[in-house]
Specification:
It contains four helices and no strands. It is mainly alpha-helical. The protein has a domain of 62 residues. The chain is flat, with a radius of gyration of 17 Å.
Length: 90
Amino acid sequence: MRVPTAPANPILERLDLPAPEGWPLERVVSLLAGSLIVASLALARARDPRWRVLTGLIGANLALQGAVGWCPTSGALYKLGVPLARECRR
């Protein structure tokens, strides 16, 4: 008996990108931080300079991640089911 598989994503196949469920936690944290930094800088430019406080908090979070290998975001993402790099199949 064949087990049904999820349909392939044609966009990911065309771009030759890995499936998001295969991304390790470390990569997701970097992607999330980079996206939020760009968004907060755009908001600071367009709306109110106080949005730069968010940029500083994200930078502090990344510094903590680099220094000790853990940050609150990584803990939350891990509890949501994002695997660590050593848990991902390649």
